[in-house]
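thought: user wants a sequence for this fold. calling inverse folding tool.
action: design(structure=
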C-alpha cells in the first residue's frame, strides 16, 4: 500500500511547500494537488475571501524543489485548458521532475469558477464528451511525433509535442466514479484511477471498472486504484461525527480502528490511499505533526 499526501491549495504558499517537503523527507510516497482557481461556492455568491494556488505552476515548483516522490493533480479540470496545452505542460513537468509526474485529469465540476472566469461550463454530457476526446488526444500526443485529430470539440493538424515526456507512457490518472462514462473512459485510456469512497464503494466501483475493461479488451490489472479519504486520528465522537456527516469517507478512530480500515482497503484491492491535510490542524506545524503520527504509527504495518 502506498500513502499519498495532499496539501490544501488554500494554505499559504510557505506552508504548502513546508508540508510537501516534509512529506518527501518522512516517507510519504506521492504528493497530489487540486486544480481550482477559487473556493467552491454557489454561483453568484462571493468567493473572494479565500486564496487558492494555481496547480500547474505549483506542481512545476514541486518538481524542481522536491526530490524522490511522484507528483500529480487531484485532478486537473479538462475544461480549464485546451488538452494540447495540458499535454505540453505535463510533458514539461515530467522532464523537470526527472520522470516523476502523473497527469491526473477529470471532466471538471466546479461551476462557480467557470462562471467567474468566463470558461464555458456546458452540460454534464458535453463535459464528458470533451473529456473523452481529451483523454484520447493527450495519449496520442505523448505517443506520436505528430498528432492529427478530428473530434466534435477538438481538431488537430500535424500537432507536434516535443520534447516528449521522460516516461513512456506518461501515466494518466482519471478521477471520478461515474459508472457509465467515467469508468469506461478509464478502462480505455487510464493507467490509474481515483475516487473518494469507503472500501465497500471501492469494491463495487472496481467491479464496474473491471467489466468495462473486459468490454474494451483491457487487462484490469493494468490500472492502479487509489482512494481519497479524510484522516481523523481520534476516537472522540464529538470530533468524528461532524466529519463523517460531511459526505466524505473518514479514516478515523483509535490506531487499531484505523489499521482495520486500512486493511479493508488493502483487501478491496486499493493500491494507494490519498490523504488531504484538511483535518490535520490550523498551521503547518500542527499538520506536519499529524502527518508524522500517521506515517510512523499506521503506515509501517502496510508496507
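)
observation: tool returned 303 residues.
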Amino acid at each position: 500500500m502506498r500513502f499519498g499526501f495532499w496539501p490544501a491549495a488554500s494554505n499559504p504558499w510557505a506552508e504548502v511547500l513546508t508540508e510537501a517537503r516534509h512529506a518527501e523527507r518522512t516517507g510519504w510516497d506521492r504528493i497530489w494537488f487540486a486544480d481550482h482557481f477559487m473556493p467552491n461556492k454557489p454561483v453568484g455568491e462571493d468567493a473572494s475571501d479565500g486564496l487558492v494556488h494555481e496547480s500547474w505552476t505549483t506542481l512545476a515548483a514541486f518538481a524542481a524543489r522536491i526530490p524522490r516522490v511522484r507528483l500529480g493533480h487531484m485532478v486537473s479540470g479538462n475544461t480549464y485548458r485546451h488538452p494540447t496545452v495540458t499535454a505540453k505542460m505535463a510533458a514539461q513537468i515530467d522532464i523537470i521532475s526527472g520522470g516523476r509526474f502523473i497527469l491526473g485529469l477529470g471532466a471538471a465540476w466546479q461551476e462557480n469558477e467557470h462562471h467567474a472566469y468566463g470558461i464555458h461550463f456546458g452540460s454534464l454530457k458535453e463535459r464528458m464528451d470533451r473529456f473523452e476526446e481529451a483523454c484520447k488526444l493527450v495519449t496520442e500526443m505523448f505517443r506520436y511525433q505528430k498528432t492529427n485529430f478530428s473530434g466534435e470539440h477538438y481538431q488537430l493538424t500535424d500537432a507536434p509535442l516535443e520534447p516528449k515526456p521522460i516516461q513512456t507512457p506518461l501515466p494518466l490518472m482519471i478521477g471520478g466514479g461515474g459508472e457509465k462514462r467515467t469508468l469506461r473512459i478509464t478502462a480505455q485510456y487510464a493507467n490509474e484511477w481515483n475516487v473518494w469512497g469507503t472500501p465497500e464503494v471501492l469494491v463495487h466501483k472496481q467491479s464496474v471498472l473491471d467489466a468495462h475493461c473486459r468490454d474494451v479488451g483491457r487487462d484490469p490489472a493494468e490500472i492502479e486504484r487509489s482512494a481519497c479519504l479524510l484522516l481523523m486520528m481520534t476516537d472522540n465522537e464529538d470530533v468524528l461525527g461532524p466529519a463523517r456527516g460531511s459526505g466524505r469517507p473518514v479514516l478515523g478512530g483509535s490506531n487499531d480502528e484505523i489499521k482495520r480500515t486500512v486493511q479493508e482497503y488493502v483487501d478491496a484491492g486499493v493500491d494507494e490511499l490519498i490523504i488531504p491535510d484538511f483535518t490535520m490542524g490550523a498551521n503547518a506545524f500542527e499538520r506536519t505533526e499529524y502527518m508524522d503520527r500517521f506515517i510512523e504509527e499506521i503506515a509501517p504495518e502496510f508496507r
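thought: summarizing for user.
answer: Here is the designed sequence. The first helix runs from residue 13 to 25.
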